UniProtKB/TrEMBL annotation:
PANTHER family: RIBOSOMAL RNA SMALL SUBUNIT METHYLTRANSFERASE I (PTHR46111), SAM-DEPENDENT METHYLTRANSFERASE (PTHR46111:SF2). This is SAM-dependent methyltransferase. It holds the Pfam family TP_methylase. The keyword Translocase does not apply. Residues 44-215 form the Tetrapyrrole methylase domain. It comes from Flavobacterium luminosum. InterPro entries: 4pyrrol_Mease, 4pyrrol_Methylase_sf, 4pyrrole_Mease_sub1, 4pyrrole_Mease_sub2, rRNA_ssu_MeTfrase_I. One of its GO terms (molecular function) is methyltransferase activity. Keywords: Cytoplasm, Methyltransferase, rRNA processing, S-adenosyl-L-methionine, Transferase. One of its GO terms (biological process) is methylation.
Length: 241
């Protein structure tokens, strides 16, 4: 008779959205989980170790076993990453900022865990997407997160026009992001492409001391001056009726 093999659990561990006191946005369950988890899958080992130390200073860093999952990771490595789970050890999955698996490469590990019958345990923490939507005043009953806009100028214009039409046709809030150093250029494009009465929410540095969240019609944004350079932002549009 084959011995029964107990699988480990995959814990989805949220992180802060920037440099701040973790206690301001993260519950004690994060520290309690880090206390008994030694295996981690992260985007950046250095920042992950720094985060773990900030949450749990007593945690012995040499005991941590960290696998790096980013755009350079090959798909054949995924199996190696989940092997500890198959051996009965718990693993923590962490995003570089916010919630793992949401606009984050960790989703592939979560999918693989489900395929292998591994229990997935999501923990509570900040999501810039949901926090921005909450604060926008736009439709939180129906919304879509569209990730990054196309870089090509023509494709970007078409995408924005399509999102604007969807927001009108479906009464649906449309969310997207941009690489932070391109934020000011994106804002310029938004003000040139969208209709004057379309509502635009800009939510940046969410939960940080420099947090800035404002919703205005495009025509009113044209009267504002705001510098979004290198500030993580969520953009939301919703066409006025």
């Amino acid at each position: 008779m084959k011995p029964i093999t107990f699988l480990g659990k995959l814990y989805l561990i949220p992180t802060t959205l920037g440099e701040m006191n973790p206690e301001d946005v993260l519950p004690q369950t994060i520290k309690r989980t880090i206390d008994f988890v030694d295996h981690y899958i992260v985007e950046n080992e250095k920042t992950a170790r720094r985060f773990i130390k900030s949450i749990h200073p007593e945690k012995k860093q040499p005991e941590l076993k960290i696998s790096v999952l980013n755009k350079h990771t090959e798909s054949h490595e995924f199996q190696e990453f989940i092997q500890p789970l198959l051996n009965g050890q718990n693993v923590g999955l962490m995003s570089e900022a916010g919630c793992p698996g949401v606009a984050d490469p960790g989703a592939v590990i979560v999918k693989l865990a489900h395929e292998k019958g591994i229990q997935v345990v999501p923990l509570v923490g900040p999501s810039s997407i949901l926090l921005a939507l909450m604060a926008s005043g736009m439709n939180g009953q129906s919304f879509a997160f569209n990730g990054y806009l196309p870089i090509d100028k023509g494709e970007k214009k078409s995408a924005l026009k399509n999102f604007e039409k969807l927001s009108f046709d479906k009464n649906q809030s449309q969310l997207f992001i941009e690489t932070p150093y391109r934020n000011n250029k994106l804002l310029e494009d938004l003000l040139n492409i969208l209709q004057p009465n379309t509502n635009l929410c800009i939510a940046c540095d969410i939960t940080l001391p420099t947090e800035y969240i404002k919703t205005l019609a495009v025509k009113d944004w044209k009267k504002q001056k705001v510098d979004l350079h290198n500030r993580p932002c969520i953009f939301i549009i919703h066409k006025n009726y």
